[in-house]
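Appendix C: a fully annotated inverse folding record. The material below is reproduced so that readers can follow the format used throughout the book. The structure is listed first as tokens, followed by the designed sequence.
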């Protein structure tokens, strides 16, 4: 997956929380990433666990997202594995009192009124946050080799 694709909506993953919210506190559902993330390039691998914690759902995930980056030294493209450790408390919007609406700028992830969770957006945001500022294809990359008009560098 190219980095440009992360600006759109690269991961389709809407997960129903209805069943888990009906189960007793402490119940959990575990998934392999390929079971819940629709990704044509198979760039997301790992495990996802959702735990019912009363007023919240705890999301725990250990994922690897393979992103195609351009080396900041040699300008060659390479695959960079972004390792994600996600631990988020998710709030069903039905549990938020009407006098405390979530602002548009809220950074907290929520479960919508239909008990659906947009897991794809969480993965997208965590991936963006964990990309290197100056990607390098390999530690000993020497950068662009310019050939002079005399035939030597």
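Designed amino acids, in order:
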């Amino acid at each position: 997956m190219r980095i440009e694709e992360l600006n759109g909506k690269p991961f389709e993953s809407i997960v129903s929380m209805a069943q888990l919210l009906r189960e007793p506190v402490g119940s959990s559902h575990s998934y392999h990433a390929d079971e819940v993330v629709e990704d044509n390039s198979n760039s997301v691998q790992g495990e996802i666990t959702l735990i019912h914690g009363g007023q919240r759902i705890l999301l725990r995930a250990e994922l690897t997202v393979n992103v195609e980056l351009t080396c900041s030294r040699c300008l060659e493209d390479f695959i960079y594995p972004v390792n994600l450790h996600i631990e988020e408390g998710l709030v069903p919007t039905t549990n938020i009192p009407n006098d405390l609406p979530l602002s548009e700028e809220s950074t907290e992830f929520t479960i919508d009124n239909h008990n659906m969770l947009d897991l794809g957006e969480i993965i997208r945001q965590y991936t963006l946050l964990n990309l290197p500022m100056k990607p390098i294809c390999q530690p000993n990359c020497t950068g662009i080799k310019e050939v002079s008009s005399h035939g030597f560098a």
